Amino acid sequence: MIMKTTHIKNKFLLPLNFKTLGKALIFGALTMSAVSCEKDLMLEPENNITQTSFYTTELQIQQAVSGVYSAMINSSSRGGYDVNFYLLASEVRSNNFNAISQNGNRDYFAINRFQDTSSTEEMSILWDDAYQLVSYANNILARIDAVPFADGATKEQYRAETRFLRAYAYFELMRMFGKVPLIDHPMTPTEAAAVPRTDLQTLYNFVTSEIEASVAGLKNTYDAKNKGRITKPAAHAMLGRVYLTGYGYPLNNSSYLAKAKEHLSAVIQVEGQYVTFAPNYADLFKSANDNKYHLFEIQHISGGVSQGSYLPSYVSPNFGVTDPLYNAQSSLYSSAELGVSTSLINSYEPGDLRKNLTIKTSFIAANGQPDNANYFIKFREPGLVISNRYDWPINFPVIRYADVILMYAEVLNYEGSTALAVPQLNRIRQRAGLAPLSTSISSADFITALRRERRSEFAGEGVYWHDLVRWNIGVSVINAEAAANNYNFTITTNDYLYQIPLNQVQIAGYEQNP
Questions:
Q1: Residues near 72 by beta carbon (within 8 Å), at least 6 away in sequence
Q2: For 432-490, where are the alpha helices, taking DSSP H only?
Q3: Where is the RagB/SusD domain (predicted)?
Q4: Are 147 and 58 in contact (CB under 8 A)?
């Protein structure tokens, strides 16, 4: 037996030593261990751990649930969900980024210029990462009933968290690939290969029903030791996002609008009690404020424990020692290849406080010389000492309270209540230092203002591309951007989805996206 003690500086969700016991076709390896906060963990030797021997105690279920969260952090060599789902596959896909030069070792040029194929490595990473989380969750949910717990409420909490996270992974898969195989219990590779891609409405039904079922078992808030777990407000917020996405393109389910309003309203109703509106935009992106303002965050911690964020090193250069944003060991992942688009810079209104907190247009380079280039700095903190360029401590917000407010405003406007929607939008504008909009604004003008506001508020967070898709304006926006920059491509709605990874098509025989 091996004794291991881990101290996590008030962070709860950090993985420990995953034991890969066997890889299934599409859903990755089984997790056998994960370390929770400030616990001494007795780990069996790897060759003694089996599926049947591991999921047998309350502590092991607790560790396994931590493993489900951990699947989002550093699941691939490129980083976690923040890098793969929200930066490379979402933000870089939009017109917020400009891939400056092509590097054969990097997928982001192909993604940015819509040259990606089923053989592009990032497609397999997205697929494998999400199904790894699904696999971890399925193993827990298949065995938790048989495990005795001292407190039944704790068992239901772990079940609820796991169901939420599994549904969340499927939602991200749907947004990337459309129809995907729905696997809701442990399977052998042969069984998994026989599962066809599931239609979009069935996937939405699964995701929404799973998250709705999780709400009862979740807590409204947690103590400091357990901050980072999924809460009731986070589940309502995610349901609001899922329903509003399903209301838009391509599903266009009109019944989802009322559902979105119901769940978004549930979050807004507990503001000041379980949800906090940050008074200053700058406060949202400081590691000291992790798990304070956001509803659902991917957890990171520095200190050389392999749980830091990779994201800042993808999007900002190695600033020189005289630059205010200098950080030791923070070199750019790939120098001068991935920058902020001119169209994003020009989209900010004059006086918008968010612009200089999101984008830096000049800096002092490592050689001490000034360099005029455009980079994201939203997740980079001045003066931090980190162990390496993958050691950034700031959490990544999967869904923020501002998103709930703006989605709620969007729903109100769709319902014809523009005058009620405007004050919601103005809360976000006023925090950004902008003048409020008039409540007499037309519905069409409100939509224009809302779309601009969402781009400014969430730039760099992987939100805008999915907005373009659900509004079905991605084709016109991207084609206009390509023409303005003399890029030699145009897109169609087929390009809203990525290609199914080639190895999945070859092994399981899935039909390819057009």
A1: 80, 81, 82, 133, 298
A2: 443-458, 464-470, 474-484
A3: 393-491
A4: yes
> Taking Cα atoms as reference points, which of 384, 364, 386 lies closest to residue 375?
364
Averaged pLDDT of the chain:
88
Identify the pLDDT of residue 52: 62
Cβ within 8 Å of residue 419, ≥6 positions away: 439, 440
According to the model, what pLDDT value does residue 366 have? Answer: 83
Spell out the alpha helix ranges (H) of 269-400: 311-315, 342-347, 354-358
From-to residues of CATH 1.25.40.390 in the chain = 53-218+475-513
What is the reported pLDDT for 50? Answer: 53
- Give kind and range of the element (H or E) at residue 64: helix 58-70
From residue 60, alpha-carbon distances to 64, 115, 139, 499 in Å are: 6, 44, 12, 37
Q: Are 244 and 308 in contact (CB under 8 A)?
A: no
Q: What is the DSSP letter of 501?
A: P
Phi, psi of 25 (to 5 degrees): -55, -55
- Rounded Cα gap, residues 45 and 443, in angstroms: 63
Could you give the residue ranges of the DSSP H alpha helices within 71-145?
81, 108-112, 121-143
Residue 385: φ, ψ to 5°: -100, 115
**Count of CB atoms within 10 A of residue 374's CB?**
17
Q: How confident is the model over 155-187, as pLDDT tens digits?
A: 999 999 999 999 999 999 999 999 999 999 999
- CATH number for 53-218+475-513 (one of 3.20.20.450, 3.90.226.10, 1.25.40.390, 1.10.1740.10): it is 1.25.40.390
Could you give the CA distance from residue 210 to residue 369 in angstroms, rounded to a whole number?
54
Please name the residue ranges forming H helices in 8-57. 51-54
